TrEMBL record, chain A:
Residues 13-91 form the Winged helix DNA-binding domain. SUPFAM superfamilies: Winged helix' DNA-binding domain (SSF46785). This is Transcriptional regulator. It holds the Pfam family HTH_34.
């Protein structure tokens, strides 16, 4: 029986964010926004969802007068991504 | 990009596209740091040489302590600006330099302590060859991590110079003022040049 794909990751923007964070140790909000070509509001909402699920941790740092948000994958998030990719492989093999 | 459902094939394509987009940062280290350290050390060696030529001050080597001031200055600059992205490679390189920096501080403290106990401060001469060796190892490891042959092998100049100085000191050959200049030159070769190589790579990637 096919495993259900994690609904939290099976969405374009969230999957893009997680894919980027999987290849980096840490990335800031502006970098993620540029790479995903998303709006700040939308990205913020999706990050909140990932954060609430414990997939991504965020940290605010103050630099001069600006506040920056740094994001990184948690071990739970990494595991969820790996499971998601495994499930994806199964789906694609079945569809062949 | 927005919040929308995608099919399995699109998911896989998106994952590979995003991973590919971060790849440009994988090979980039912090070229500027190498450049600043390389040129600062070279400039300081010329200052020390000039001070000795003009004043014949025998303890002019103490001016190397200005390296600590420069270090603190660089640390303040680093902490002010957090990089937009921290790759795993950059993190490993940071740890390597943290270890090198710690070794440098510990070595200085131990040598100073022993000098103080025996009242013979000429043992501080050891700092120059040991610094060349430590920095050479640090740059070389960085080169190995980022898989750049030039950055991995150029530091052998500094390591070789450090070993020569250590051997000379062991053989009771007194250090000359030219050692300072050679030390400065070795930093150009093992730090400033690798720094420029890194910067050029960075420009190509962007």
């Amino acid at each position: 029986m096919l495993r259900e794909l994690d609904p939290l990751l099976h969405s374009q923007l969230r999957l893009a964010v997680v894919s980027i964070l999987m290849s980096l140790d840490e990335a800031d909000f502006v970098y993620l926004r540029n790479k995903t070509e998303s709006t700040a509001g939308n990205l913020s909402v999706q990050l909140d969802k990932l954060s609430a699920a414990g997939y991504v941790s965020t940290k605010r740092v103050i630099e001069g007068k600006k506040t920056r948000t740094l994001c990184r994958m948690t071990s739970k998030g990494k595991k969820a991504f790996e499971d998601y990719v495994e499930a994806l492989k199964v789906y694609l093999n079945v569809k062949k | 990009m927005e919040e929308k459902k995608i099919d399995e094939k699109e998911s896989l394509e998106l994952i590979s596209q995003m991973i590919q987009s971060t790849k440009e940062y994988m090979e980039i280290g912090s070229g500027n740091h190498f450049i600043y350290w390389g040129y600062f050390t070279a400039a300081l060696s010329i200052v020390i040489y000039s001070v000795f030529q003009f004043t014949e001050w025998k303890s002019c080597g103490l001016l190397w302590l200005l390296m600590f001031v420069f270090w603190i200055f660089m640390e303040i600059l680093n902490h002010r600006k957090h990089p937009a992205v921290m790759t795993y490679i950059n993190k490993v390189i940071d740890h390597v330099w943290y270890a090198m920096g710690s070794m440098f501080v510990v070595t200085f403290a131990v040598i100073l302590f022993i000098s103080f106990i025996y009242g013979r401060y000429n043992s501080l001469d050891l700092m120059m060859p040991l610094s060349a060796i430590y920095v050479g190892i640090g740059v070389s490891i960085t080169g190995i991590i980022i898989q750049n042959k030039w950055i991995a092998y150029l530091p052998f100049v500094g390591i070789g110079l450090g070993l020569y100085m250590l051997t000379a000191l062991y053989l009771n050959i007194l250090p000359t003022i030219y050692w300072h200049l050679m030390f400065g030159l070795s930093f150009i070769i093992m730090m400033a040049i690798p720094g420029h190589i890194l910067k050029r790579k960075e420009k190509k990637a962007c």
